[in-house]
Amino acid sequence: DNNRCLGRENERRDDASASRIKVVVRVRPMIPEDTELGKRIGDDQKLLCTRVHPDGIGLSIVRPFYDDREFSFDRTHGPFDSQDDAYETIAADIVDDVLQGFNGTVMAYGQTGTGKTYSTFGSARFWENSAYDKDTHRDILAMSEGRQTPHQESGIIPRAVRHIFDFIDNNRSHTQFQVTISFIQIYMETITDLLTESAPSPTATNGNSSNVAGGASTKPGLHIREDPKTGVFVSGATQQIVSSQVEVLQLIREAARSRATSSTAMNKTSSRSHVILQLLVEQRSLVSEAEQAQANKENSNVCAGGKQRGDAVKAKRGLLTIVDLAGSERLSKSGSEGLRMEEAKKINKSISALGNCVAALTDPNVAHIPFRDSKLTRFLTDSLGGNTKTCLCACVGPSALNYDETYSTLLFATRAMAVKIHPVVNEFVDFRPNPLSVLNGPVPKDSSKAWTAELAMKNAQLESEADHLRAEIAKLKQELTAGSDVGSTVQTRVDSDDDSNQHVDSSSGSSWQAKERELVSKFTNIIHHMQLEIAKQNATIASLQTQLREKPSCNVETDLVVDRILDGVLSVPRVKERLAERLRNAVNNSN
Fold this sequence. Notes:
Blueprint: H1 2-17, E1 22-27, H2 32-40, E2 50-52, E3 58-61, E4 69-72, E5 75-77, H3 83-90, H4 92-99, E6 104-110, H5 116-120, E7 141-144, E8 147-150, H6 156-171, E9 175-187, E10 190-193, E11 210-211, E12 223-227, E13 231-235, E14 240-242, H7 245-256, E15 261-262, E16 270-271, E17 274-285, H8 289-299, E18 313-324, H9 331-334, H10 339-361, H11 375-379, E19 389-396, H12 403-416, E20 427-430, H13 448-496, H14 502-550, H15 556-590
Parallel strand pairs: 1-5, 1-19, 6-18, 6-19
Antiparallel strand pairs: 2-3, 3-4, 7-8, 9-10, 9-14, 9-17, 11-15, 12-13, 15-16, 17-18, 18-20
């Protein structure tokens, strides 16, 4: 009975969390910095202030001579829970939703030194400049059952990448995929692109030394823009197409070395910037040969009213955003001075702006949400109550010396659970032909000739149809000329004998008007049909040229074929222009 009640309670919590931000709390183990901090402030007692409940949901924070404070979240992880367990509760569902076409955000929040970067990236060797096998990433990926799997200390990012590409491998036979990566950081309210930053030389980690690659960049900062259809984005950020998890990890590793970090009294590798990784997964259903043949057959027929059916295939895209926030800190504990102190001020200001946005979102009496108070909150507009499924990973430390910071983090997490979200599937209709769609993913080496041959065949069909239209135009022109002659004859007879030919004039005039309307309708259908064919062919050729430019293995013969196809298609608009001109002349003559 207790198990059934617990199951019903979990189902109710799952239904409720589907319409709000999901919150998971993670308590890190004690680390040497906790002991050093206690000695520095004169309190070297190793007291703990956190207690995880056995149900894995509740969390208590305790302090001598004070009442215990109880909290409840979607999931609470203790100090010794594995990275794999954390990924399953924090990010696995979000990644599944992204693969179904939703937008998803995973955000690590908390005080400095509480394990946000460890939860997000994994072990420190993931981003340090150390020797590694670039082909297999053996220090990040391990072999299990004949395939590469993340190392046991790998964080959310390597596991999410593996999750995505496993899904692609299992569905590649009936779906086309394309994965695009972007990687940026917000350092002192300046947005920089980590994929284009050069990696700095290693620096010492003692004292207040720092890797300030992002802060010392001479490149101008990027700007945040908003698109009515896709939402908020960073204008000018690199969008790089990737084809394997090894390629993604290599890009992330090289880019992460350019992140601004430094050493403080509370964290030897303290992140001094907010880092945002985005993976855009686009997918398009493949159309079988029989379905494509049927679609081509339907496309060759002009529907009533001049409309035509195109190659409409449903496609969807999901955007996964992983945010590793810089941790808030107290200067009295971190010992930051000079540039480190200025960095801490900017970090605390943006974290405070994030808290203000969450507080405003949960207050029904507040009409204005201050998203524009910082670059971070502006970028996270969609993740906070918008078209995104969001999970907040609140990281806390167990030491009683950080009781106040832990309490503040848990209050923020509790408030975030009340933020409502409004996710929808990002589904659209793609009219591009299958072989040249941008959702293809990696292009096979031997496929360019086949694509060119198919285009040549389609172009030959289009030329044949154009010849047929020319013949029909000539026939219609003859009918139009004959109709004009009849009209002239009828008019002559009316002038010679108005009384005897009044009936003939009336019937012939009505017949000519009906004929004229029929001809105009036919010309309209033909012109509309040719416009659709021209637009489709132009899109096809543009896609092919883009693919061929990206493939250096294409030979000169392929380029010549594309040029011939382009010349053939470009000749169709001139036929359309001549047809429209003749139609106007014919109507004028008839009047």
